Amino acid sequence: MFPFGTFGPSEPRDIYTGLPPIDKAQINFSSTTPFTPTYVKSNVTRTSEPARIYASRVQGRQVLLENPARESRSKKKREEKKAIRLAEKAKRDAAVMGRRDARRADMWRLSPSETRYQLFLPLHTLWLGYMSELLALPPPTSLGADVPSAIPNVAATHAKLVKADFHGAIVAVRQSKNPCLVNLTGLVVHETENAFKVITKNDELKLIPKQNSIFMLPIPMFSVGSSQSPAMTAAAPPAPRCSDTDQTETACITVLDIPHMEFELYGNQFCFRAAERAGRKFKHKETIEL
């Protein structure tokens, strides 16, 4: 607030002084001489540079006249509930089923006719191609060359394996506190946070807990896929394939039938869902005994 009237540097200023009498005076404002700068500069008489004072302290400043009204807690809760309802509606519209809904609908429950090892071998074939691309495995032509030099970097392989998807992989229990699980081998059809659900060669569905278990994971040593040149085909290992006419166990070749590497997975440090592992940063730790 600025006092009315013009006073000298030594004269006292009375903020309650009335307006000066104006008799038939016409006030003209223009863009070149606006009212506010002119009024401020004319009343700042204690400085020799009123224009500089106005530019540094007044021009462009915003004065908050009163405190803004705070939003009530009930309004925030209503907005949060509304956002949750909109998110659930968008998920329903997108036909995305959550874990709880899938569990209620028994989406992961296999019927006896679906619990067949041969039925999921094509999934294993897709997983081998996926691992070949993920780990950038060398072509099979390296078989005739130096085999140790063709083995990929183990440290880089570990970092990629902990983030990989294991649906379709073949895992075996190497050690476990439960002796009934040792040497149990099967094809992973469903991975949860705390367990692997596998199908054995005897067409049995087994649920293997990750806790207190050490798993063996075989990985192909060379790339497996159908996009190979004729020169590579002669030296290539037999690619996993399934016959449409013969559904016996010998009709399909798995990763155990070709040159492969074996990695150990410590279940105590692996209790995460596949989606969580993809974005999680794992740290190097010492070997943990069961």
TrEMBL record:
Which Gene3D superfamilies does this entry report, sorted A to Z? Ribonuclease P/MRP, subunit p29
GO MF entry, a single one: ribonuclease P RNA binding
Where does the protein principally reside?
nucleus
* Cellular component terms per the entry's GO annotation: nucleus; ribonuclease MRP complex; ribonuclease P complex
Task: Identify one Pfam family in the record.
Answer: RNase_P-MRP_p29
List locations, semicolon-separated.
Nucleus
Question: Which GO annotations describe the biological process of this protein?
Answer: rRNA processing; tRNA 5'-leader removal
Q: What family is reported? A: Belongs to the eukaryotic/archaeal RNase P protein component 1 family.
Name by which UniProt lists this protein:
Uncharacterized protein
Per the UniProt record, the source organism is Ceriporiopsis subvermispora (strain B)
